[in-house]
Amino acid sequence: MPFNIVTATSEVITRDRDVGAITALQAVENSTGILVRDPDNLPDGVQAIKGVFCGEETMLDQAEAGVRATFGAQYEVIRAGRPFLELMDKGVNKGSGAAHLATHLGLTADEVMAFGDEDNDVAMFDYAGLAVAMGNGNDAAKAHADYVTASNDDDGLARALQKFVL
């Protein structure tokens, strides 16, 4: 199963010389390129912020329990969309990121509105005063949301902003 490193500058590093479509998608989503490197031959100063198992949904579905059992005590293990299973330092997730940003801006959790559609948004939803899941989101995101709006394709973000902010 392909495993990639994402750096602090969003670069995608893989050792897989046969770069697949999911790794290419990951690079496009990060607006970056792909470095093919052996882990023992990484560029100087590389700071990995997360590791990502990536591949077809059914392959990750079969591997997810084993990945959680192997790495779950040491790392946050979260499904970020169907083709990505991410590993990050314990306590690093969208919820802790939202809390850090809110504190920096002088906001309380009650003043934070969060939008999301996947498992990796659940921690952020649990933090935010108002959690809005997209209509095209998965069941876990919708279950943790305070409100479910229309899908991305049906202007769900704009509709929720009109309902709660404007």
Automatic annotation (TrEMBL):
Q: What is this protein called?
A: HAD-IIB family hydrolase
- Check the record and name the Gene3D superfamilies matching this protein: 3.30.1240.10, HAD superfamily/HAD-like (3.40.50.1000)
Q: Extract the InterPro entries matched here.
A: HAD-like_sf, HAD-SF_hydro_IIB, HAD_sf
Q: Which UniProt keywords apply?
A: Hydrolase
What NCBIfam families has UniProt attached to this entry?
Answer: HAD-SF-IIB
Q: According to its UniProt record, what is one Pfam family this protein matches?
A: Hydrolase_3
Please give the superkingdom of this protein's source: Bacteria
Q: One GO MF term, please? A: hydrolase activity
The answer on whether this UniProt entry bears the keyword Cell wall biogenesis/degradation reads no
Which first-to-last residue range defines the signal peptide? none
Q: Which SUPFAM superfamilies match?
A: HAD-like
The answer to whether the entry has keyword Hydrolase is: yes
